[in-house]
Structures are given as C-alpha cells and as structure tokens.
Amino acid sequence: MSKLFKIRAAKPDDILAIGNLCSQLGYDVGGESLQRRLDQITSDSAQVLRVATNKQGDVVGWVHALPVCYLEAEIFIEIGGLVVDSSCRRLGIGQALMAAVEDWAREGGFPTIRLRSNAKRAEAHEFYRRIGYEVVKQQVTFVKDL
C-alpha cells in the first residue's frame, strides 16, 4: 500500500466526498437519495464499497462492487462504479481500489469481475486494459422510466 493513500471500507460520514466524486463522473446526486443508497449498499454484506483516503484522511476515490447472477452466466462480480478525484489520478489509487475488490472477490469465491464503461471514457478504457481487463463485447443500453 502506498504511503500517499489508504484503502478502507466506506463510512456514513464519507457521504459528501462520495457525492462530490459522483459529480466528477457526471452524476449529480446528493442529499437523501444518496444517503438512502449509501445506507443500502453499506448494510448489504453481499456488496462492497471501498474508499481511498489521502494522508489528510480525505476521500479521494471509491469503488463499489456487487455479485450478479444471470440464468445464462455463472455468478460474477460487477463493478458498480469507480472514480478517483481528478486531481489524484495516475497515482495508483484506481489500481489499488480495483485490487481491493479483486481480493474481496477471490475471498468470496467469485472467479470473474465484469464492468461497464461509457463509450466516451477512453482514458478509463486504457486504465482497465492496463490492469488486465479485456473488452469482450460492445452493447447498447436501453432504459425505460416507470
């Protein structure tokens, strides 16, 4: 582990920093809806939410992962989100966060991790390739609000 940052489980008082990092991904969330989702994720032992903190203890990144089970595929871990503060990128924080999830997945007996990344995030795609992930398919995402 680097002396520049530490990886730990997310805590309820990390919410403002987590919300600010969500904004850097383009998702302006906060308030009660973020609090509700954070509480739901952190209280579910099947999911993991890790944060990276700098020397001052400020949250500078997070990763969220959860098991997914489909009829047509063996259960796997999916990365729900990963973000590192724009001022702290290229310091190994994202790689350390992903390594923490990979360790958690191995300990849980999950042989595979999958993730999705927006087509416009070319830098992120290069990062994932650099740490050993490969593109297996491209798809279109549909949504319908109810």
Annotation keywords:
single chain; 146 residues; alpha+beta; Aminopeptidase; 5-stranded mixed β-sheet; 4 helices; 5 strands; 32% helix; globular
Q: What does this 3D model show about the protein?
A:
The chain is an alpha+beta fold and 146 residues long. The chain is built from 4 helices and 5 strands; from the N terminus they run E-H-H-E-E-E-H-E-H. The protein has a single domain, classed as Aminopeptidase (3-Layer(aba) Sandwich). The chain has helices spanning 15-24, 31-42, 93-107, 122-130, and strands spanning 5-9, 48-54, 59-70, 73-84, 113-115. Strands 1-2-3-4-5 form a 5-stranded mixed β-sheet. Strand 3 (59-70) and strand 4 form a beta hairpin. The chain is globular and about 45 Å long. The relative contact order is 0.15.
